[in-house]
Amino acid sequence: NLRSRALLFLCLGLGSDSSNALSLRATKLTQDSTYTLNDNNTIPVIGLGVYLSEPGNETHNAVTWALQAGYRLFDTAAMYDNEEDVGDAIADYQEEHNETKSFITTKIIPDDHGFEEVLDACDGSIDKLGVDPIDLYLIHSPEGEKLVETYDALIYLQKEEFVKSIGVSNFGVAHLEAITTDGRPHPAVNQIEMHPLIYQKRKALVEYCQNHNILIQAYGSMLAGKQEWLEKPLIVDMAKKYKRTVSQVLLRWALQHGFQVIPKSVQKERIESNIKVFDFELSDADMTTLDNWSGDLEKYWNPVDEVAVDLGETTNWPDFAEMEVPDEELEFDEEDMLEDGLDEDTEDGEWDEEYGEELEEGEEEFEEGEELEMGGEGEEHDGEEEGEDDDDEEDEEEEL
User: For the segment 291-323, what is each residue's pLDDT rounded down to a tens digit?
Assistant: First the structure.
C-alpha cells in the first residue's frame, strides 16, 4: 500500500526540478488548447469548477453539460464533498460516447496535512473519482500547516504514478519558497484568487510563479458573482464594446495573461456561454484598464497573505538534492535507518519483497503504530465562509 511503499522512498530522495518552461501564453487559443506544465504534462486552458455545486444531481448535471459543451478539465476537492459525482458523470459520459479524454484536479483538505495522512487522502480521492492516476493533486491551503512533509508526500505520489502533476492552492511566495528547499521541484500549479480587482495586489506573486514556471490557475475570475461589481460601468461598457457578456470579458482577460481558468456554474446556458471566449481578443488598452481596476470582493479567504509558514517535521529528511538512487540492491542497518528518518523500532528485514528484500520468516510488515513519525500535530482547519449560490447573480467561479 502507499504507506509501506513510502518507506523505501524516504531513503532514495525525491529527484530534482524540471527545467521545462511553461507555455504561458499562446498566440491563438481554442477551447482545446493546453498549457505545458513544468513537469512536461499538459493541462487544458479552461475547465469547470464545482465549488458550491451540491453533491448528487446538481454536480452530475453540471459536469455532463460541461462535457457536452467541450470542457475537459474539472476542478473539485475533498472539501467540496462531490468528488464521486464528478467521477461518475465523467465515467457515464465517456461510456456513452466512447471517449477517454478528461482532466481532473482535486485537493487535500488542511486536516489531512502530513505525510501519512496525504497517502490515505489520495487513496480516498482515487476511489471516489474512479481514476488512477489523478491528473493534478493540490495542497488546498497552507492553513493545514506541516507544508514540507505534506509536499514531500505529493512528490512521492507523483514519483509512484498515483498522480500525474502536483501543485498547491492559496500559496504565497513564502509558502512556495519553503516547500522547494533542498532540491525539491517547484509545484506545477498554484491555484489562487485572481481577477482584475486583485491583480495589482498579487502581481509580485504572479511574477514569482511565472519566473519559476508555476502556472497560475485562477479562481474567482467572474468576481464571485458579485452584482455590485459585475454591474460597474467600466466592465459593462467593455462587454458591450465586444458584444460579449461580462463573464466572457473577465475570462478572456485571465486567458490573455496566461492564467488557467475554472469558471463555476450549475446552469446549462452559462456553462455553454463561459467557454465561448476563444473567438475574440481584448485590446492592449483594455487589458491595461482591467489590470488597474481595483477593489475588494470581500468574499474569499486569503491564506496567501494571512497564513504563517509552518514546515512540519523536516529534520529527519535526507538532503534530496545530493542523494542518488543506487543501482544495486539496497541494504539497511539500524543505524542507517535512524539517520534517514525511519522509526527506531524498525528492524532489519522488515521490507516488502517488492523493494528488494523479502520479509524474514516470522516477521510482519509495518503496523500503523510502527510507521514513521512524520511531524507534529497541526491545528484543525476551521473552514471558510462559503456563502450562498444565488441563481439571480452571475455564478461564482470555483473558489478554492
Answer: 999 888 776 656 666 566 666 655 434 444 343
Q: What is the per-residue pLDDT for 302? A: 64
Please give the DSSP secondary-structure letter assigned to residue 101: -
- Residue 192 to residue 89: CA distance in whole angstroms: 26
Q: CB of 75 within 8 A of CB of 284? A: no
- Strand locations in the chain, DSSP E? 34-36, 42-44, 48-49, 73-75, 103-108, 134-139, 163-169, 189-193, 215-219, 260-261
Contact status, residue 312 vs residue 113, Cβ threshold 8 Å: yes
pLDDT in tens, 180-219: 888 899 999 999 999 999 999 999 999 999 999 999 999 9
- How does DSSP classify residue 16? -
Strand ranges, E, within 148-281: 163-169, 189-193, 215-219, 260-261
Is 80 annotated in the active site?
yes
CB 164 within 8 A of CB 134: yes
Q: Whole-structure pTM over 0.85, yes or no?
A: no
What is the predicted pLDDT for the residue at 341? Answer: 41
Q: In this structure, is the dihedral angle defined by the CA atoms of residues 357, 362, 363 and 367, taken in order, positive or negative? A: positive
The answer to whether the bond into 133 is cis (omega within 30° of 0) is yes
Question: Which residue among 35, 71, 80, 137 is the active-site one?
Answer: 80
pLDDT of residue 3: 52
> CB under 8 Å to 116, separation ≥6 — which residues?
3, 6, 153, 371, 372, 374
Say how far apart CA 137 and CA 151 lie, in whole Å: 10
> Among all chains, which residue has been given the C-alpha cell 523479502?
358
In the chain the first and final C-alpha atoms are separated, in Å, by 29
The answer to whether the beta carbons of residues 25 and 258 sit under 8 Å apart is yes
User: In the numeric block, which cell numbers belong to residue 362?
Assistant: 516470522
Residues of the chain with pLDDT under 50: 4, 7-27, 315-400
